[in-house]
Amino acid sequence: MDENTVIGQRIKDIRKALGLTQHDLSNDLKISQSHAGAMELGSRKVPERIIKMICFTYKVNENWLKNGKGTMFKKNHDYKLEEVIKNFNKLDDLLQDYVIKQLRLALEYQQSKDKKN
Fold first, then answer.
1. How many Cα neighbours within 13 Å face the side chain of 98?
2. Residue 1: pLDDT over 80
């Protein structure tokens, strides 16, 4: 297997581990869906810039992505936080404000509950 195919398969593994579609991946990386698909198939070389973006965006271990060494994700990868951020960024400003307000209310509730215990 050539390097493009191996890295492409690892990108697909990352995407599936995170429960993302190719559409999600392409949106997050600001590339076309056809580009994402071609990278996964190994028919298109993955530029260093995209490797860096994947590692930053999804907290992927760059050494694993390039060389298959180590674990897929950097230690302490918080999947819940990643999902919240990904979905929060899809909301319009009004809904983002609403979510922030609800989060603050939930924290106040938790703090008042903790004080009673």
1. 5
2. no
